[in-house]
Amino acid sequence: MSAERALRIGIGGPVGSGKSSLIAALCRELAAEVALGVVTNDIYTTEDAEFLRSEGVLASRRIAAVRTGCCPHTAIRDDITINLEAVEELERDQGPLELVLVESGGDNLTAIFSPALADVQIFVIDVAGGDDIPRKGGPGVARADLLVINKTDLAPYVGSDVQRMIADATERRGSLPVHALSLTSAPYAQPVAAWIRTQLGAFVRAGGHLHSSATGAPVPHHSHPHAHAHG
Length: 231
Hints:
By secondary structure, this protein is an alpha/beta fold. It contains nine helices and nine strands.
């Protein structure tokens, strides 16, 4: 595959939903076939990047850490400059890349990515957060291009009904896909990796333009490094 720049996929969700673990699993699935990099976001630390490096899922130089110093949604939606610069530096120094995964810091159900930062978006929730989350909704649950319901293996221990969560999410999301999974048992992250492969193919065929459901706007082929966008 080839494109003028990498496909950028934003991965958001509440604290503890398993975003970093999902990214590690996706790197294991895709790194042998796709040139990829990761940008993580933490408020004060580089803990998520250090976790990924310790897992050995990518060369350390392909994992960039952003310390936002502010509410996580600000750096992915409102003033995205620091993240855009991190993505562009990663592509320049480690490229050419085909895929960059941008992990938000843990945030609430209202967090979405600016279309100037992410071409498409994955939102991650987990069964331990409560099986009423899909019903309560929010932009991440309702409009992300893919919703992942994570940690299904924990459902019996926390009293969550996975099938109810899937049904509520499907009702709220319409035709947008929902994947319920556990990273501790088959098929692991394979369904999400397959979805990403499809997005990569569409990105190349469209010449670097994808239409994100989260924002309802087409994503520009080039973004200015100091763009400020509001979701």
